Amino acid sequence: MPRRERRAQLLESALEVFVASGYHAAAMDDIAERAGVSKPVLYQHFPGKLDLYLALLERSCDQIIAHCREALSSTHDNKRRVEATIRVFYDYVASESGAFRLVFESDLTSEPAVREQIDRVTSECATSIAEVIQADTGLPDEASRLLAVSLVGMAQVSARFWLTEAGGIGQPDAAALIAGLAWRGIAGYPLTDEH
Length: 195
Description:
Blueprint: H1 3-25, H2 28-35, H3 39-45, H4 49-73, H5 78-94, H6 100-104, H7 112-137, H8 141-165, H9 171-186
């Protein structure tokens, strides 16, 4: 198998093991077995468990950030932007892969490299959202960023809560409910004369 394909296979196997067991309980033996390779093959691609976890975490963080940016650029209608961005977080936590557990429920947040990746999701998503808010409202950078971080937090925390405790509400309805709340709040900031 070509190196790139093998690496992707190892990452998928590692995702399954880390999601099922958490970082501390996961073993490289389990990951190698799940991937159907020997442990030396696994170590050829990843020198250690933390390296493997960080590669997987970075990939997961990159995906959610990219989807957030895509949602923002999918339309110039701000109400639809809010809806699309909230949906990103609900789609992410509802994904069968369970990758969100690495980003939002990691049992390794005391590790600086892990914390940096996790914080990057909030920071980069908020930066993209703040740019839209600032451009449309003329609010100062600091105010735009605070509003953006609040929107990311609302989306992330409500999506995780929905997944575990809001059983009677379907995913599209839950995302629409929170998008409505977010839109009613952010729509209160008037557009600048240019927009």
